[in-house]
Design a protein that fits this description.
It comes from Siculibacillus lacustris. The protein is α/β, with parallel strands linked by helices. It has one domain (about 5-205): YbaK/aminoacyl-tRNA synthetase-associated domain (YbaK protein, Alpha-Beta Complex), CATH 3.90.960.10. It has six helices and twelve strands. The chain has helices at about 15-25, 55-60, 80-90, 120-130, 140-145, 190-195; strands at about 5-10, 45, 65-70, 95-100, 110-115, 120, 135, 165, 175-180, 185-190, 200, 205. It has a five-stranded mixed sheet. A five-stranded mixed sheet has the order 7-4-5-8-11, sandwiched between helices. A two-stranded antiparallel ribbon has the order 6-12. The radius of gyration is 17 Å and the shape is globular. The chain starts with 6 loop residues before the first strand and ends with a strand.
């Protein structure tokens, strides 16, 4: 049984073995040999493979390199993204939440914004070429993505949806998004996220 607050890091490189080994050798480590995540907590690296989610299956099918960060989700948490940043010891600027938006009619899309900021709906509408944008219904969000709230990933959604990401994503070396369930984050290069999802990058976050 996992102790409260225990965090696990799982390498899930899906590139050629030689390239993957090189990437692992050059990943920053602390004196104990663990990956450096900027965490103040005890971060444990384990080789046990986590159960696949549609998000991880999607990335593996595309041969995209990513890491999985696993932590004990607190059911009482209200801000899922901020909980992930806190428990994983990550800069909130690198952790993005995935929101479902709609145009008030039938069109839906995904919007990625830093967890400590809010989505500017007018800006999202402009980026998507819509006249207006509003937050999607919770039931629609789960139906369209196939994920539960708090575990919605931009990868492997049940229905392919347009994606718009805040421009802050391009300012970080690694971006973190939900891995497809609560308590699971995917760490990935921003360029890979944008290319794989065909995401529109625009200033859509507000304070």
């Amino acid at each position: 049984m996992r102790r409260s607050g225990e965090v696990r890091v799982h390498s899930s490189w899906t590139i050629a073995p030689r390239a993957a080994e090189s990437a692992r050798r050059h990943r920053p480590t602390c004196p104990s040999g663990r990956p450096v995540l900027g965490s103040r907590r005890d971060v444990r690296s384990r080789s046990r493979t986590l159960a696949a989610t549609p998000a991880t299956t999607f990335l593996k099918s595309k041969k995209i390199a990513f890491d999985l960060l696993d932590y004990a989700h607190d059911p009482r948490a209200e801000a899922y993204g901020l909980e992930a940043a806190d428990k994983l010891g990550l800069d909130p600027a690198t952790v993005f939440k995935t929101l479902v938006v709609c145009d008030g009619a039938k069109a839906h899309a995904l919007a990625l914004v830093p967890v400590a900021r809010k989505l500017g709906l007018p800006a999202a509408a402009r980026a998507l070429g819509w006249k207006r944008a509003e937050m999607g219904d919770k039931a629609d969000a789960q139906r369209l993505t196939g994920y539960v709230l708090g575990g919605i990933s931009p990868f492997g959604t049940k229905r392919p949806l347009p994606v718009v990401a805040d421009e802050a994503l391009t300012a970080v070396a690694r971006v973190h998004v939900s891995g497809g369930r609560r308590g699971l984050e995917i760490a990935i290069a921003p360029a890979d996220l944008v290319a794989t999802l065909g995401a529109i990058v625009a200033p859509i976050a507000v304070d």
